[in-house]
Amino acid sequence: MTLDLCPSPALYPFYRKVNDTVIVVDIFRASTTMCTMLHNGAAAIITVPAIEDAIQYKSAGFLVGAERQTRKCDFADFGNSPFDYRREKVLGKEIVFTTTNGTMAIEMGRESRMLYIGAFSNIDVLANRCMKDSDRVVILCAGWHNRINMEDTLFGGAFAEALSCRGEITHGSDAIKIATELWQKAKNDPLGYLQKSDHYQRLINNGVEDDAAYCLQHNTVTVVPVYNSADKKIRASV
Amino acid sequence: MTLDLCPSPALYPFYRKVNDTVIVVDIFRASTTMCTMLHNGAAAIITVPAIEDAIQYKSAGFLVGAERQTRKCDFADFGNSPFDYRREKVLGKEIVFTTTNGTMAIEMGRESRMLYIGAFSNIDVLANRCMKDSDRVVILCAGWHNRINMEDTLFGGAFAEALSCRGEITHGSDAIKIATELWQKAKNDPLGYLQKSDHYQRLINNGVEDDAAYCLQHNTVTVVPVYNSADKKIRASV
After folding, report:
1. Domain range holding B66?
2. Would you state the pLDDT for residue B37?
3. Best interface-test mutation with B: which of A148, A170, A180, A185 has the largest number of B CBs within 10 A?
4. What is the pLDDT of residue B34?
């Protein structure tokens, strides 16, 4: 099993190989939130890159989660906080979802053999899955407007550790080695470590620092969100 | 003074701001080698992206350094080893230079207010210069075929340290924070640390590991290579 990390959606063309399994991560908060939606019983997630698309879906009667620059869009039912998507609201529903960076990363990875959504929330179930079904896995970090970020990189290092507990892995390039180095430094206190990160500061400034703590908890859900290229929806696989 | 790091030439559009001073680094080996050329008295460096351009210059009588995939091109006078560019060969000459990644990074940064070439070789003289003439500095890493690498990232952390000895600096984004974390881990033995990096392995495989040791030495030269946008040549500034 080879593991690599692509630190920005814009770089995926340079990391892509045939038969990649891609794991899209946007730890603060889109990928964590998608795990929560499906764990709480949402039937599917339809990700859309543009606000205009989300507004159209809203007009057509869909439940819509929409965020830009860390804030919930006014027209939407939900923002990008995992706490928004309570079971009684989402059970059995299809949720349309657009966020600043996460949905762009999904766009970039759409054509891979397999596309999963990853987070600390589902790290172990995802590692089990990848050990079974993948020869090469690329963690595709959502980053921030195509710039790299600390929390998605850290997840890469944590995932490398999770995989290497389960079997032998090869590092695909320096990117995953850098992530691993960073995780070794941060793992005893990821929340403390990430207080120096840009996006933690943005969350603080928007009063949602509780989201950050939740987003760093391991194994709070048991689902692997899987992108289906036939209908472009993301559904839970247990 | 704000310092940021752009980890791949392809990402520079997302890091660029008006009035950036850009420092192009390709530690193994192009930026180190350019410092050596100018330190040894070369009159100027003309970087060209394509091999075909370099061949044309060669036909026109220029001295040419050309490398692809870690190896010297057959037609060229020099490869990408700093040891190739001895004083008796380069003194007073204009050198045409093309390498796998370094020249591409220069292409991306060409339009910045100021473009310097940086390496461990000139780290202190470069830090002095930037403290005097720049409000915002972006270290533009050459990487490897637009993928990020460890040695250029490490330089970013080392440069942050060099600047912060000279005054107060602000981190522009997570990228320079990651670089700083990495450098703090590596600084006691950068050569040992980088033995896990991809490009160190490539250098070993090509029998040029002595280059790696040289490329990590601090302050072996006293020049700052400066790109001149009027004639597109790089010259020494002491």
Report:
1. 2-224
2. 98
3. A148
4. 98
